[in-house]
Protein: Mycothione reductase
Organism: Nocardioides imazamoxiresistens
Amino acid sequence: MSAQDATHYDLVVVGAGSGNTIVDDRFSHLRVAIVERGPFGGTCVNRGCIPSKMYVHAAELATSALRGPALGVATGLENGALQAGARWSQLRERVLGRIDQVAADGEEYRRGLDFVDVLTGTARFTGPRRLVVETEEGERTLTADQVVLATGSRPVVPDVPGLHDVPHLTSDTVMRLEELPRRIVVLGGGYVGTELAHVLSGLGVAVLQVEGEDRLLSNQDREVGELVSRAAAQRWEVRLGVRLAEAHRTPDGSAELRLDDGSVVHTDLVLVAVGRRPNGDQLDLDAGGVAADDTGLIEVDEHQRTSVEGVWALGDASSTQPLKHVANQDARVVQHNLLHPDDLVVSDHRHVPNAVFTEPQVAAVGLTEEQAREQGLDLAVARQDVADTAYGWALQADPDDDAPSGPGGFVKLLADRSTGLLVGAHVVGPMAATLIQPLIQAISNDVAVRGLARSQYWIHPAPTEVVETALLALEEELS
Ligand SMILES: Cc1cc2nc3c(=O)[nH]c(=O)nc-3n(C[C@H](O)[C@H](O)[C@H](O)COP(=O)(O)OP(=O)(O)OC[C@H]3O[C@@H](n4cnc5c(N)ncnc54)[C@H](O)[C@@H]3O)c2cc1C
Ligand SMILES: NC(=O)c1ccc[n+]([C@@H]2O[C@H](COP(=O)([O-])OP(=O)(O)OC[C@H]3O[C@@H](n4cnc5c(N)ncnc54)[C@H](O)[C@@H]3O)[C@@H](O)[C@H]2O)c1
């Protein structure tokens, strides 16, 4: 078939991350194509949420062992180091063995469906709802009634002089390292940098983390970012308020980095974690007539429709909150709207929670205190320390122990006095991503703070009591 001969489909999905979840039996009366250039499952399964959290769990085991001796449990700690360390090759095998199988099974299943064609290659627009796919066998042209753009995002490697010449990784490649380096510099103190610095340090690598802002996780509530920065600095070296100025490859193949405060650092590897950008810039969106911003972020309305009729976008390709639970809900909305064109549903991006799986764990929903004050809200603020709850005592080596990765965490709640509603919730400490769920429920359903704690039992002495007491303190503040 020549490049000019187009194959027509009812539906083409570009990107088999969250996009792959759209196609089910309800589409079996249609002719569907799924175009994917990499492994099925996208970022989350292959190089994001799943492998990172599998490694995080291993790092958590290693770091909890570090606290063992203070609590009277011998865990093989000698001179501040674990004597029984991580076996990277075994860990890596466990992680890759699982995710690679999931990706392969997902693709095989799709290829087995008679109403779906799977095309391996990179798609780009050549006209409205007209795409060319570069496959190993040559170009294929597709036209479609409906196109779903689920093309995700990729890590940014900044144009710092010399950075491309020194050994460096991104989150795309770090999960598959053959061996752990002795030393690593983690560039960036956001989600990726702070989770992976925790993993690498927990597994025995000497980590130096460099963040341009004055604290790690600078998008979180200030107090949370400050606590995480203190906790990190107790485990690995953290340099705040500095950036990489230039990099040189040394004769032995390692890297010499000059930071913009004039200091020089030597390292075996650099992990670049300074943000991600959407992949829309690689789609020739102009040719397709699809509107996007300067970064390639595709514009969508509340139904996930782009500027072209019949073209939809979802997840990291179109969201300012590039998180998997957002991509999942976007995909459910697109799926419904494709199946029910006369009964479109709306995407709900009002109260998107987030969690950072570092140590201490962090979770948040709604406004930070700084954002709420900037908006001029008449604010009630309450804070409850984990250490002052019954479960906190279980974590403490002694009554003064406020180790940030142990009992040193807290719950911070913000309410608008004019409505009596929660506007922000921040949890830092053990199990933060789990503890926050009742607060996500309250904020999403406009449940009044008054009476919320007392309207239900809270199991004693479970970790959730910290949420109960924070809510009671907030109610007191509001009265
Ligand atoms: C290290 C890391 C950890 C993360 N941890 C979490 C977490 O704990 N929780 C959380 O909520 N989120 C997490 N995320 C974010 C999460 O992975 C993403 O938000 C999510 O995967 C986005 O899904 P998506 O379907 O929009 O895009 P993706 O999963 O990126 O899927 C896009 C797919 O499109 C394909 N593609 C792109 N362009 C083309 C093209 N032109 N032609 C053909 N195919 C194309 C890509 O190959 C890819 O498979 C993490 C991200 C990273 C990097
Ligand atoms: N747990 C999760 O949900 C999770 C985990 C990982 C990634 N993600 C997603 O991936 C996205 C990208 O994560 P990320 O950590 O790469 O980006 P990010 O935007 O969260 O953090 C990047 C950090 O790098 C810093 N920075 C930028 N340029 C720098 C420089 N030259 N020198 C030093 N510091 C610099 C920024 O100040 C910022 O703190 C996140 O926004 C999130 O949506 C989510």
Notes: The mean pLDDT is 95. The domain at 163-274 is CATH 3.50.50.60 (FAD/NAD(P)-binding domain). The chain is about 30% helix and 25% strand.
